[in-house]
């Protein structure tokens, strides 16, 4: 038999969407059984962001439960996404894969102290029973503004590929890249490195149901939350010693059957997580009210805590970061996680007075407050009203009923100085994209890691 088929099954960007995971494992078990019966080579891989601390199980175990689930599902290789990389402390990431039964390949992640985790590999070779050698690389997105505060550094993907590809091409029959870099970077890599046969992608949550070929490289990805799982089929010709065909499909699992054992294990993990999350943080005499379009005492308090904690002149937070009210009585870690699940860090940015006025205008517009945001760490419904500490905003209404900003004053009643630079604390969400362009464009950004907004919320609730 001169031709041989081999298979890759892959997941990407689960983001701890564990409701879907029993469907994923049922699908993988079925495919793994079929390939074993047919004596066909297959490998199971994950492309990162499996971990997301917005889920109680991941929050309580700091991602260790995710690794347990990957072990049980028979994974061979994984790479890291930014959620594994920058939402855990240095020590938590250092130990994350200590008990992994699979290889962790990330070619561009480096520890800035003297110690590299024993599990971290730059490249890995998979070999089929017939002797086909598959060189595997993994690359993660370079969010160094966060990574370096956590004593990690992510090297530029092209520098790393320049270093490894030539040697890997000599030693391998097939090269597969696990890329947590996003679709446009994957396409650029395909144009520059024809030796890469397949790029299994993620990060930008793109769904390529039939794959895409760029410069002879097959690119594939399966959206987000594992509603789809990917299959790559490669045909190798032993006589010609080359790949003669490669195909990719992303298979819809939204309505597929669930694996009962996985469901039971997830229930056990949730029960264990709840023991940790049941720890009491404080007791409140009155209910803590949350409203997305009003200034309530809890969002005001949280904004003030943010300002003091970052030593800022001004702080601003959107009311939509808090998802739900709390009844009077005990408040637990689980309550704080439930009402503020986002993996969002505090950030301090430098803004001139005139830029602050512009930010205030943008943030008070209905386009902003009513935006149903998905992404940039935000796990809520909509942004809601922007709440300020350290400034007073004087507004009025146009004839058509629209609100506008008349003047922005400092706390002591003076108009804000348009030419002066102020330190402004906010959620790191606004440093990405175009939600608040002045904040995103600020050349000085100081991120606070590994603290999330919910760590500050504990202080705010205690003050209620």
> Helical stretch count?
15
* Most strands sheet: 7 strands, mixed
The CATH class assignment of the largest domain is Alpha Beta
**The CATH H-level homologous superfamily of the largest domain:** Metallo-dependent phosphatases
Topology, number of strands: 24
Which structural class matches the secondary elements?
Answer: alpha/beta
Mean pLDDT: 96
CATH level 3 topology of the largest domain: Purple Acid Phosphatase, chain A, domain 2
Strand percentage: 25-35%
How many domains comprise the coordinates? 2
Task: Provide the fold topology.
Elements: E1 3-11, H1 21-37, E2 41-46, H2 56-61, H3 64-72, E3 77-78, H4 82-86, H5 90-96, E4 103-105, E5 109-111, E6 120-121, E7 123-127, E8 133-140, H6 144-147, E9 152-154, H7 157-171, E10 174-180, H8 183-192, E11 198-201, E12 207-214, E13 217-222, E14 228-237, E15 242-252, H9 260-277, E16 280-284, H10 297-310, E17 314-318, E18 329-332, H11 333-339, E19 346-352, H12 353-364, H13 366-369, E20 386-389, E21 391-397, E22 403-410, E23 421-427, H14 437-441, E24 445-447, H15 453-462
Parallel strand pairs: 1-2, 2-3, 3-4, 4-6, 8-10, 10-11, 11-13, 17-23
Antiparallel strand pairs: 1-14, 5-9, 7-8, 12-13, 14-15, 16-18, 17-20, 19-23, 19-24, 21-22
């Amino acid at each position: 038999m001169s031709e041989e088929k081999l298979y890759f099954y892959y997941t990407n960007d689960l983001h701890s969407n564990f409701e879907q995971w029993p469907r994923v494992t049922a699908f993988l078990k079925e495919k793994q059984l079929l390939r074993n019966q047919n004596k066909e080579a297959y490998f199971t891989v994950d492309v990162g962001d499996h971990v997301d601390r917005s889920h109680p199980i991941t929050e309580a175990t700091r991602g260790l439960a995710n690794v347990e689930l990957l072990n049980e599902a028979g994974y061979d290789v994984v790479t890291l996404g930014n959620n594994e990389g920058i939402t855990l402390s240095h020590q938590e990431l250092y130990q994350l894969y200590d008990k992994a039964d699979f290889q962790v390949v990330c070619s561009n992640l480096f520890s800035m102290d003297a110690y590299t985790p024993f599990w971290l590999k730059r490249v890995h070779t998979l070999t089929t029973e017939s002797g086909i050698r598959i060189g595997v690389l993994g690359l993660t997105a370079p969010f160094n503004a966060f990574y370096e505060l956590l004593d990690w550094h992510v090297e530029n993907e092209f520098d790393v590929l320049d270093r490894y590809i030539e040697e890997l091409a000599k030693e391998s029959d097939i090269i597969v890249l696990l890329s947590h870099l996003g679709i446009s970077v994957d396409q650029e890599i395909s144009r520059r490195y024809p030796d890469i046969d397949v790029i299994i992608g993620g990060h930008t949550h793109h769904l390529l149901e039939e794959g895409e070929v760029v410069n002879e490289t097959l690119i594939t990805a399966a959206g987000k939350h594992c509603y789809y799982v990917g299959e790559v089929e490669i045909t190798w010709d032993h006589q010609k010693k080359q790949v003669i065909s490669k195909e990719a499909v992303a298979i819809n699992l939204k309505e597929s059957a669930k694996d009962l054992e996985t469901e039971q294990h997830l229930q056990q993990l949730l029960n264990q997580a709840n023991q940790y999350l049941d720890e009491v943080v404080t007791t409140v005499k009155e209910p803590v009210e949350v409203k997305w379009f009003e200034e309530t005492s809890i969002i005001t308090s949280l904004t003030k805590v943010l300002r003091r904690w970052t030593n800022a002149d001004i702080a601003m937070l959107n009311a939509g970061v808090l998802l739900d009210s709390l009844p009077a009585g005990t408040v637990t870690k689980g309550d704080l996680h439930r009402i503020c699940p986002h993996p969002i860090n505090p950030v301090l940015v430098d803004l001139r007075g005139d830029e602050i006025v512009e930010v205030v205008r943008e943030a008070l517009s209905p386009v902003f407050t009513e935006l149903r945001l998905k992404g940039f760490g935000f796990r809520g419904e909509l942004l809601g009203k922007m709440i300020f500490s350290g400034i007073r905003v004087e507004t009025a209404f146009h004839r058509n009923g629209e609100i506008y900003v008349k003047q922005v004053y400092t706390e002591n009643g003076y108009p804000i100085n348009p030419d002066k630079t102020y330190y402004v604390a906010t959620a790191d969400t606004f440093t990405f994209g175009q939600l608040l362009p002045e904040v995103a464009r600020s050349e000085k950004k100081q991120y606070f890691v590994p603290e999330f907004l919910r760590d500050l919320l504990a202080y705010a609730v205690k003050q209620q």
